[in-house]
Amino acid sequence: MQDPICPLCGRPIPPGVPQSLHHLMPKLKGGKGGPLVLLHDICHREIHATLTEAELARDYATIPALQAHPRLAKFIAWVGKRPPGFRSKVPGKRRKR
């Protein structure tokens, strides 16, 4: 059986690698019970470090929309060069509010 693939960065998610489920529509914005995607934990943390719940709900409720965001596109290019089990305790700078 093949490892699942992170839809954000396209790298495999092997067993034992930190992973998490992301609600494409944030739960706080009506997404409870909505579509979920399995991501590397580092990818999931970067999404939430970059975008507010309102921004996610309004403009970034799909994987292609997330991949098109300039900061996330830069992150995807960077993390894509790392091995699937790569971990980082500190994501990039938090978004400006």
Q: What does this protein structure show overall?
A:
By secondary structure, the protein is of the alpha+beta class. It contains four helices and two strands, in the order ββαααα. Helix 1 (41-50) packs antiparallel against helix 4. The chain has one domain. 34% of the residues lie in helices and 10% in strands. 23% of the residues are buried. The model has no long low-confidence stretch (mean pLDDT 88). The longest helix has 10 residues, at 41-50. It has helices at 41-50, 53-59, 63-68, 70-79; strands spanning 19-23, 36-40. The chain has a two-stranded antiparallel ribbon with strand order 1-2.
Topology:
Elements: E1 19-23, E2 36-40, H1 41-50, H2 53-59, H3 63-68, H4 70-79
Antiparallel strand pairs: 1-2
Keywords: Endonuclease, Hydrolase, Nuclease
GO molecular function: endonuclease activity
Organism: Antarcticimicrobium luteum
In short:
By secondary structure, the protein is of the alpha+beta class. The protein is built from four helices and two strands; from the N terminus they run E-E-H-H-H-H. It has one domain.
